[in-house]
Amino acid sequence: MRRRSSAWDKQLTRYVQENAAFRRHVLRELDRRGPLLGREIETHKRRFDDHRWWGTRQVGLMLQVLNARGEVAVVGRRGKQRVWDLADRWYPETERLTWAQASRLIDEQRFRSLGVQLRRGKLVAHPDADDGRVAGRVTFLSPFDRLVHDRARAEALWGFYYRLEMYVPKAKRAYGYYVLPILAGDRIVGRVEPLHDRTEGTLRVLGTWWEDGVEPLPLDEPLASLATWLGARLAS
After folding, report:
1. Which helix (DSSP H) or strand (DSSP E) does residue 197 occupy?
2. Nearest residue to 59 (alpha-carbon basis) of 27, 32, 91, 26
3. What's the rounded Cα separation, in Å, for the pair 140 and 154?
4. What gap in Å lies between CA 136 and CA 77, rounded to an integer?
5. Which of 75, 82, 89, 77 has the alpha carbon at shortest distance from 60?
6. CA gap 233, 236 in Å, rounded
7. H-type helices in the chain, by residue range?
8. Segment 25-54, tens digit of pLDDT
9. Which helix (DSSP H) or strand (DSSP E) does residue 191 occupy?
10. How many Cα neighbours within 13 Å face the side chain of 208?
11. For residues 182 and 191, is the Cβ–Cβ distance under 8 A?
């Protein structure tokens, strides 16, 4: 479930409160006759005032809202149409937690998976974090890899300032359009801008930048791996 403090959840809660009778009707129809397509619920064809989200398609909107709240579920398809039913009929019995309990568990899992946490400007290591030796493999990271997904964390850990510059005017870019961090062992040592030319089926490098104090490393192996994954050949 989403955090109830989010703006999105406040909108969902307000919508359900404003349409409480309609919510009960949709749930009652599913209880009596489900599973159903949205258009099989009778009020689908009633006239509603236009809603700023979905116009007059109020059954579809209510089903989406109830799905986000865990009250109904998509249980199949007929052609391209989703089939809906009460979630309790399909979801297994499970332990129920308060949001405070769930939030603590989520935070602990995130802390454990990332290994460190930034608290009041200081990095704190998880008690189970392993600081043993890491293989010296050289590879490229996706801009959305968990090591660099949190840009502030990456900068705090490695002093590595990283931003995607695809929306930055070319003349103002510090590096390139789509630049990937270079990971060597347990250190981010630089960045590279590969370009996949789909017309020619080739992969070439537009630029490579190394962090201060880093000796340039051979990139033949990670480039070959990336080319294989893309189904391309390395340009000479």
Report:
1. strand 187-197
2. 26
3. 15
4. 48
5. 82
6. 9
7. 7-18, 20-33, 58-68, 99-114, 146-149, 151-158, 220-230
8. 999 999 999 999 998 987 654 555 565 655
9. strand 187-197
10. 14
11. yes
